[in-house]
Amino acid sequence: xxxxxxxxxxxxxxxxxxxxxxxxxxxxxxxxxxxxxxxxxxxxxxxxxxxxxxxxxxxxxxxxxxxxxxxxxxxxxxxxxxxxxxxxxxxxxxxxxxxxxxxxxxxxxxxxxxxxxxxxxxxxxxxxxxxxxxxxxxxxxxxxxxxxxxxxxxxxxxxxxxxxxxxxxxxxxxxxxxxxxxxxxxxxxxxxxxxxxxxxxxxxxxxxxxxxxxxxxxxxxxxxxxxxxxxxxxxxxxxxxxxxxxxxxxxxxxxxxxxxxxxxxxxxxxxxxxxxxxxxxxxxxxxxxxxxxxxxxxxxxxxxxxxxxxxxxxxxxxxxxxxxxxxxxxxxxxxxxxxxxxxxxxxxxxxxxxxxxxxxxxxxxxxxxxxxxxxxxxxxxxxxxxxxxxxxxxxxxxxxxxxxxxxxxxxxxxxxxxxxxxxxxxxxxxxxxxxxxxxxxxxxxxxxxxxxxxx
Length: 455
What we know:
Elements: H1 3-17, E1 26-33, H2 56-74, E2 81-88, H3 121-125, H4 141-147, H5 149-165, E3 170-175, H6 186-199, E4 205-208, E5 211-213, H7 219-232, E6 235-244, E7 247-249, E8 260-261, E9 290-291, E10 295-297, H8 306-328, E11 332-337, H9 363-383, H10 395-409, H11 419-438
Parallel strand pairs: 1-2, 2-3, 3-4, 4-6, 5-6, 6-11
Antiparallel strand pairs: 7-10, 8-9
């Protein structure tokens, strides 16, 4: 009666019943979350919450045993499970260090790192201490690598049991970059903790939840993140993406000051749309939980405004162009959009989805499905002969080709916002491919006269 296993059985059966259809696969999430999602007893001596937290040596062995049990349990579905998220959201969104205990946390640590808000039993157990046994507060690469030991242990164990059991699952690290918080230092530190895992041959994929907005981060930042991720892992994935439309760039953002979680001890920030402890429960619809963030809530936000939807579509189109390009190189594992409407999604109320509240396709939907079609059209344009080769083909066949090529090239920079735009690109691609196939070469007269006296 396990719901996940029931789903896996249904997928296996569907694949068996539809051998002529593309197979359906499953992405498994997640082996080890950052901390408080597993049962609290898992982290204590003797699995007893009345006893102290376990040592990191015990947790290393416990993590290995847990991964062995999980992989053995799901081994029967090896044919349809394509990947496992081995570790999820290990770094603090504010300071980029491994998440650890904080004031009020059930894990018991009394110190609160500067700008930190996010607790983790893993981070507490593996916390770097000084010679007096006090948690090290200085943020450094040494501390980052020391405290991320549990992440390396998880991936090494997963690779070991993957090979031992003969399963074919790709091993992923998964995290998100929240559009209301700074990308740095979290993004760079994520790459730092993944480097030794990659060098050990234990990393197959870099998963990005891609909680984005049209205001932040920029497409250039995302392209850099994807490129850097691919230096460490063979492929990247968007595991639960969305693009909020309710944010605008915060003109009061001060990069010289820290971006922090709002707490009762932090003053209210007069930013017209962010930084309010009293309204922090509205964080999904606003940015009140973040002080001095790079974005703020639009005062006149309307998810159904045509210009707002157009800007979202353009953002999706630019992002999908990058992913389709990398996908053609075999470097993209999956692209998953989170939710089914603007209201039925994690970031509900932010206009982030590619469907509106009634489930109707927004312009962003057509931008997403238009991206691979635009890529194919670009391939067709590149595949045709250059203008300098016109003399090599008959006038009639070249005229058809030239007209088809002109029609395709005219659509290269045209944005797609509706079904007609998608169909126009598909038709232009089909016409161009047909014209290339129909090109006829001209007959060339060859002079076979030979001066026999020369021989």
